Amino acid sequence: MTEITGPKNVVFLVLDSLRKDRLSAYNDDIEFTANLGALADDAVVFDDAVTQAPWTLPSHASMFTGRYPWEHGTTHARSYFDGSHETFISEFADAGYDTAAITSNIWITPHKGMTDDFDFVENFLGTADNTISQRLSKLSTKLYDSLGTLPKRVIGRQLDRAFRLFGVDDSCKSEETVAAVESYLDAQPADDPFFCYVNLMEPHEPYHPPAEYLDTHGVGDTADIPQRQKDLFTMDDPDFDALRRIYNASVDYTDDLVGRITDSLAANGVADDTVVVVLSDHGQALGEDDGLFGHQFTTIDPVIETVLFVDHPDLAGTRHDQLFELRRLHELVPYYAGLAPEPDEIFADTARGGCQFPENFTGFIPSDAWDEYYRKHRYLIRDGITVRKSVSEHGDARYQALDRETGAAVALPDTLRAAIDDIDAGADSTAEGGPPDAAASEADEEIQQRLEALGYR
């Protein structure tokens, strides 16, 4: 890596649920990501980046802290970040940066403990964004997390029915998010460095891109397109071909939204002093493996292999094909900003990740499919092989080993089996989510509605 100078502004742009194979930077057949492609042309592109968790909250916690999910403890079983581990955002605050988080993603809010290090937070929660609401939300989350599986299933299903009855706004608030970014950049003093975290939700279900994008990608009737995780279990015959088209339309729309952000950087005269980090926190399953949809119940390659490139004003475009764990962004982003020395051995011989037993929409899993979907997942990549381990609630483990180049099943080497087993052998079980102390409180209604709108409980 080249010696760089700072301080540089940083836009940390997370395109939620974006698959690598839907960007021209990774797939020459894609023709609808011109803005992202232009950024990638002059960027440091990571061809083999891997997330540490297949859903937003633990993935972000790993990126922000540099720790694995079983170390920071933010997972299905404890769906909030307790702040016990320092995030790299604090390095920017300590260096005098103005730090901002602009996101409609309910997991990245004060209510989930993920934004404590930011000076400014816009999460579009309106009157729900207040100290009392934040405290109630954290208390209700602890209460919910302390319940057993059966009560969670019952409560989750009833909440879903209630929110459908009241007609929840299920937009991703993409226009509002970009408008807030533009306003933030317009108001930013010219000489004050900034770190701006942005999360665009368009590639995440539910999919409602504008009509012009639907027309471009041949999306007509949307009645049979799965829009939420529960549709995997409640739709009789999901149209996965149409799902892939509407997903492409959402990515196409996302690309134009990114173009507005980069145009705003240029219009405000800060493009030449700003590092733009573009990534996905995880990908998305779109009908693979006999009808998988979403990212809650699977760790297949399109879910755990992620987008990552860095457009840096001081660096020429280059590509890295070495294995990279997203958690190392904890060290790499301050370096790119000129705040920290170049980290040692940034690339990995082994990538690890996983998630706990899912809790969102488990109330819709048919009883005969329960053991198939209610499982703990671990994955490990080494020596050109991806190993997956899934464990039932009864402790029964399954293993899968695939050649990364061909996708073919291979014999599981004893060394890799031992390595993936060591993940849990060395994990602190209390850190990854035993039942926390609970305090009774009613969840804030707006927070719960937004969770439902994004396809969660």
From TrEMBL:
Gene3D superfamilies noted in UniProt: Alkaline Phosphatase, subunit A
InterPro entries: Alkaline_phosphatase_core_sf, GAG_Ulvan_Degrading_Sulfatases, Sulfatase_N
Residue stretches making up the Sulfatase N-terminal domain: 8-313
Record region (Disordered): 424-457
Extent of Low complexity compositional bias: 426-441
Protein name as it appears in the record: Sulfatase N-terminal domain-containing protein
Organism: Halonotius aquaticus
Lineage: Archaea, Methanobacteriati, Methanobacteriota, Stenosarchaea group, Halobacteria
